[in-house]
Design goal:
It is a single chain. This protein has helices spanning 136-146, 186-194, 214-217, 230-241, 251-260, 300-305, 311-323, and strands at 2-3, 13-17, 23-27, 40-44, 46-48, 52-57, 62-71, 79-85, 108-111, 114-124, 127-132, 171-174, 198-204, 224-228, 246-249, 270-274, 289-293, 327-328, 334-338. The chain has 343 residues and is of the alpha/beta class. The strands form four sheets. Strands 3-2-19-17-15-4-13-14-16 form a nine-stranded mixed sheet. A six-stranded antiparallel barrel has the order 6-7-8-11-10-9. A two-stranded parallel ribbon has the order 1-18. A hairpin with a 4-residue loop joins strand 6 (52-57) and strand 7 (62-71).
């Protein structure tokens, strides 16, 4: 796939893959046209934190980059799972970044105006649990002053925080953008409303898309907290009762919905944590379709798509994406995939 190399590129496209095997090539601006009156479209309203922090490992005075990777719990905002890298920055491919200094519990990290303590190493030299000293207010102020968006080498120009906020961004809990949300803007929402399409949101703390280490990548996605508003849960129940289609905007929404669903498919309002992967053996209880970015086989996001379609159908979609030179990664093009009917 061709990587998208900058935010807000023109000519963004949409490949719509129906459950009947039909593939349509559209513009992103045509998104509302692929929804059916009565559909319930659900998006993630998480805003993205400036979660990359350059600093120093105090015991060795060696440079370190910390990438916040997950909340210990959303009600405990100063503790995170995090990745550590050695010298360098995003201009070097994540896979080629040097290892961090040898880290140990109790080590202090000076991260600009912030001080943090390594609470524990999490069974990998790059993966740790981190505790920021001070209260949550001072921590968020320090992140705003010193942090940068997590960025990868395929995007050469430095990203600003507004580059990684979707038009729906509200609650600052994500570590990378819930990028399928870039497809939704207020003009699209107005067109959806005119078609009788309903819209709701949830909040899911989207995590990292890559760690630079094959073994760690095999664990992605990490555990990710979410919050389902009571209004959204009620709208899901109404849609299911009416036989309407539920369309998830992004893999994070699928994870939240399926994690919050009881065995009978009823989605519970409130807070929870999405754990483990959704894959080919997962029986989806809520999502009937997904709008997602362009993902490649082998990625954890692509593995989730196997719950919506078999390998033959996905191979056809991948071939169409490659032939059409669709752009991948967080600022790329989009795919709408309907779930195959259950027999």
């Amino acid at each position: 796939m061709i990587p998208a190399t900058q935010p807000r590129q023109g000519g963004v496209r949409l490949l719509a893959a129906g459950r009947d095997g039909c593939i349509r090539h559209l513009r992103r601006d045509d998104l509302a046209s692929v929804f059916t009156p009565g559909d319930l479209v659900i998006a993630n309203d998480a805003a993205t934190l400036p979660a990359s922090l350059a600093g120093v490992h105090c015991p060795t005075s060696e440079p370190v980059e910390i990438r916040l990777a997950g909340w210990h719990a959303m009600h405990d905002p100063t503790r995170f799972a995090a990745l550590a890298f050695g010298r360098g920055d995003y201009r070097t491919r994540t896979e080629d970044r040097p290892a961090p200094p040898a880290l140990a519990p109790g080590d202090c990290l000076a991260l600009g105006p912030l001080a943090a303590i390594v609470e524990a190493m999490l069974d990998h030299p790059r993966l740790l649990r981190l505790h920021f000293l001070g209260d949550a207010r001072s921590m968020f102020a320090g992140l705003a002053a010193h942090g940068r968006p997590i960025q990868y080498a395929h995007v050469p120009a430095p990203l600003a925080l507004w580059d990684v906020w979707t038009p729906l961004a509200a609650h600052p809990v994500a570590f990378e953008p819930p990028s399928a949300g870039f497809a939704i803007d207020w003009r699209t929402l107005a067109a959806c409303r005119a078609r009788g399409v309903r819209f709701a949101t949830l909040t899911h703390a989207a995590g990292l898309s890559s760690t630079g280490d094959a073994e760690l990548d095999g664990r992605l996605p990490f555990d990710e907290p979410y919050r389902i508003p009571a209004r959204t849960a009620a709208m899901i129940a109404e849609a299911k009762g009416n036989g309407a289609r539920i369309v998830a905007i992004g893999t994070t929404v699928v994870r939240a919905l399926e994690s919050a669903a009881a065995a009978d498919g009823v989605v519970r309002a409130g807070d929870g944590v999405a754990r483990g992967r959704i894959h080919r053996a997962t029986r989806l209880l809520v999502a009937d379709a997904i709008l997602t970015g362009v993902h490649e086989p082998g990625e954890s996001h692509f593995e989730l798509l196997r719950a919506f379609a078999d390998d033959a159908r996905l191979a056809t979609i991948v071939a169409a994406l490659e032939h059409g030179r669709y752009r991948a990664h967080e600022f790329g093009d989009f795919v709408l995939l309907e779930r195959a009917p259950v027999h």
